[in-house]
Amino acid sequence: MPPTVLPPISIKAETLFEIPLPWGSVAFTNSMLQTALVVLGIALFFFLATRKMNLIPKGVQNVGEAIVELLLGITEGTAGRRVGRRIFPLIATLFIFILVANYSGLLPGVGTIGHCIAPHETTTPGGEHALVVNVKTAAPALQEKAAESGGLPTPEQAGYCTGEKTEFVPYFRAPNADLNMTLAMALLAVGVVQVAGIAAHGFGGYLKELATPWYLTPIHIVGEISRVISLSFRLFGNIFGGEVLVTVMYALLGGIFIGFGAFIFLGMELLFGLIQALIFSILTLVFIATAVAGHGSHEAGHDVVHAEPGSVEALGQEIAHKITGQGGAPRSGPQVPGTDTHGGTETHVGG
After folding, report:
1. Alpha-carbon distance 317 to 81, whole Å?
2. CA proximity to 181, closest of 311, 276, 89, 290
3. Taking the C-alpha atoms of 146, 134, 27 and 7 in order, what is their torsion angle to the nearest 10 degrees?
4. Looking at residue 115, what is its pLDDT?
5. Which residues of 30-45 are buried (b: 16+ CB within 10 A; e: fewer)?
6. I need a labelling partner for 95 at 20 to 30 A (CA). Which of 87, 131, 206, 275 fits?
7. Average pLDDT score over the chain
8. Once rounded to an integer, what is the mean pLDDT over residues 243-255?
């Protein structure tokens, strides 16, 4: 029985090829390739779901409508109908993309199918060329010692990467296991929060919200900036760490339990992938609703959201109330954490 090979683990996404441009070149990474495949897969699914619309949905259309109604119920249950309908496309897109991207990283072949390349040549600060080599290549004695002590063989040790080509580059990498992707989504989400706040209160009014009370202004500003860090690193850390855990557990348990032990961790990653997609989208939703709450809460009586009991939309509203800490039936208007509409008073939460 051949030894179980431990694929290389890299925080940085590997470059597949360079795209030449007039002002330089852009690296096309394996995470970009899988991102494109995820986007195409989502587009194909909803194309099939909406190609032949029927009054009584069935098949793919039924699944698509259930997803949309659930997300719409969560959005309206948190932000109200007026604000929820306007930001629903963003929240639904974030949730669906993150969920599918997370699950795509668990498919067979992701991170394990690729090609071997020669070690990269770099330039030292003094101008001399230095060869960046793998520790296992530079120290065969340590390599043999690790193998004798029961260490897991690498692709090079298993004979997959031989000769001068000793670095393994996978073709696919989960999009959210790349910090560039999660950081871009976090910047987009926080940017929309600022735009929504300015659109609701005006530029001067939004600055006044941030400066109320004045001695907490620095904390409010730092809180807005820290949202980018918390959103991006939380998603990246959970997805990247989960993939490393599944990879190591499969390498350790695959040969002993015929992969059964690894399936336990795969089940956990399915749950964590859903939770992380929900957390990212719900936090973005709450941030936007909080930014506009001071302007819209006076019209709460005209923003009541009614959903048919037992429907998927009603289930989404119930989920929204539980996630945002609001128990019981939906109240009239957008009751958002960080706002208090009792007595005509409103407070702003900077974090």
Report:
1. 11
2. 276
3. -10
4. 80
5. bbbbbbeebeeebeeb
6. 206
7. 76
8. 75
